[in-house]
Amino acid sequence: MSAGDYQTLLAMAIYLIVILAVGFWFAKRANQSSEHYFIGGRTLGPWVTAMSAEASDMSGWLLMGLPGVAYFTGASDAVWTAIGLALGTYVNWRIVAVRLRKYTHVAGNSITLPDFFSNRFHDRRKVLMTTSALIILVFFSIYVGSCFVTVGKVFSSLFGFDYGLTMALGGVFVFIYTLLGGYLAGSVDDFIQGLLMFFSLIVIMVGGTIYAGGLGVVIGNVQNIPGYLSLTQMASPTLDAASGLQMVQNGLGLYGDATPYGIITILGTLSWGLGYFGMPHVLLRFMGIRSSSELAKSRHIAITWCVISLFSAVLIGIVGKAILPTEFLTESSAESVFISLTTFLVPPFLAGVVISGILAATMSSSDSYMLIASAAVARNLYKGLIKKDATERQIMWVARITMLVVVVLGILVAMDPDSSIFQVVSYAWAGFGAAFGPVVLASLFWRRVNFPGAVAGMITGCVTVVIWRTFIKALGGVFGIYELLPSFILASLVLIVVSLLTTPPSEEITHEFDTYMEAEV
Fold this sequence. Notes:
Layout: H1 3-30, H2 34-39, H3 46-58, H4 61-73, H5 75-106, H6 113-120, H7 127-159, H8 163-212, H9 215-222, E1 233-234, E2 248-249, E3 252-253, E4 259-260, H10 263-270, H11 280-288, H12 295-323, H13 337-345, H14 348-386, H15 392-413, H16 421-445, H17 451-472, H18 484-501, H19 507-515
Helix pairs in contact: 1-8, 1-14, 3-8, 3-11, 3-12, 3-14, 4-5, 4-12, 4-14, 4-16, 5-11, 5-12, 6-7, 7-8, 7-14, 7-15, 7-16, 7-17, 8-12, 8-13, 8-14, 8-15, 9-12, 13-14, 14-15, 16-17, 16-18, 17-18
């Protein structure tokens, strides 16, 4: 490695030490009880709540996946995804946050999403709890895998380190600091990491635009690519049949005719926003704030961070195309455009700080995923079903073992270095959005929804995502739409129909629904 590489690595090492120190600092408080470990005792303020929600939400795909999509196929897919996520973020904070914070308190002081589903519908057989816990375990293992892919790509791109080794070491590191400090450490780390992600995006977006000669020059460099800047067309790279790489001529990547990006595709991409209603790692932040009255302030912070960060990431991909037009010749490799721009534009030590933003995005998400998965297994499956008299010590041990299992599964998911972070994340996002989103919304807003409807809706959403992505999407045309939209719609319809055709909820349940917004929490 060069002297510059050592400076970059030093900056990243300092960042990792700080994150680990936070885990040690909160270890004693976090391990007081499972409630403190999994939800921080509901003690977080508005700034930490907002920043930890957004940092854990976006993960490494914000700094790698989204710029990579914009770099390789142009603005349409990336911009519509960003718009959908920004709208979904706003609506989720606006209509769900306060209601969920109050209802989880009323419904047996629920500290996990499976707890809430079970308590909301007075599910004494724990069917909803078990189903949702298993869904969380499966899809968060996929999600964690996407985070580890990011870590592997960062170190292999920067220093030529072995992808598999650094990917696995990244997983072990996150496991250690999450194991130590639980939700409190994760949330404070996420606050730090959210600031670092924001700083990194702004530095590279502004620095890249200035280096290229201004936004006008950037646009001039890419506007001749068919469909590249259009929101109704997508650029179509010309790939070599033998190698699968984009073909290059006269120092520029070759593109064929633009492909249409029609209304059905736009609606499917915008449906990313629907996913927020079912994201356990975001909803948990609403549940963990110390007072529902502080959620309005959190909302303003979160929306500002989200909108600026998303559109900075898209612009970084476009600026990268203008500056480094032939650097990346596959969709997967294009996800390293942020890294290449960073090392190209800024001094080595500052590059280490900026690239730590990618690690920040990765770790702020994977710690949340591991915590929620471990809570689902330890509290909802182990204590809820297997050993109802389990002690706090036993619950914590099961949680730690579950974290280890999720890390191992995530490493297995991430073994392929050519994995697309964007595609892996989109699968897990659709799974949570369709399985949990309709049930969360109905639980908070519809008095008539009942237990059979919730179970039917949850299972329908999960199964439809898997079937649509595996079998139907390959048919193309209208069936090529992002699987979240049809799955969410079908799950909602099934939930409504089954609820109306079966016995109405009990008077006790409807009374809780009618009065939960009066709770002073």
